[in-house]
Structures are given as C-alpha cells and as structure tokens.
Specification:
Blueprint lengths: L2 H6 L12 H9 L11 H11 L9 H15 L8 H5 L16
C-alpha cells in the first residue's frame, strides 16, 4: 500500500488534506451526528497520534477522539492552524476529494 493510498483511506468527502485541524473540528462540531460518525475515527486518531505520539489510546471512539484532539489543540497554541495533511504526514495533493458526504 502506498503512502497516498493509506492517506486516502482516512478521508471521505468533504474532508481534504488542505483543511486545518481547527476547520476539521469546527466542521465536526457543526453537526452533532458527525461526533458519532465512525468514518471520522481514522483521521481523528491519526491527528491525535501525530499531535501527541505518547498519548494513551482513546476510548469512546469518535467523541473521545474529538475531545482529545480539541484538548491538544487548546494546549498547543497554533496547532489548530496546521493542515491535516501536514500533521498526518501525507504529501500535499496526494489525496483528492472523495466525493459528497453521505447524509448522517
């Protein structure tokens, strides 16, 4: 599996590598159902591990991951402005939009 293929599996529309972590969190927070959408678990966990490599595993899946990432962004000023692709180590332009988000 190539690096870009692995990164592609983390994303579904409208998420892209170009979003900042703050934009991603705002998008998740704008719709309560997104906090329970298991399709977000992969990217949230990748961001969580990148921001805090020594952190303990998160329980509660998506809600727990959102909280953990939000707390890390709050504790590390400026980290919310980093691009998701930069944080997870995917090269710019390696992931294209995966299409429309399925209604939740």
């Amino acid at each position: 599996m190539t690096h870009s293929t692995a990164a592609e599996s983390l994303f579904f529309g409208p998420l892209t590598l170009d979003w900042t972590i703050a934009e991603m969190l705002a998008w998740i927070g704008a719709e309560d159902a997104r906090c329970h959408d298991e399709r977000l678990a992969g990217i949230l966990d990748a961001v969580r591990r990148a921001l805090d490599p020594g952190a303990a595993p998160v329980t509660g899946r998506v809600v727990g991951l959102v909280r953990t990432v939000a707390m890390r962004v709050s504790a590390q000023p400026g980290s919310g402005e980093r691009r998701v692709g930069e944080v997870v180590g995917a090269p710019a332009g390696s992931v294209r939009d995966a299409g429309a988000l399925v209604a939740v």
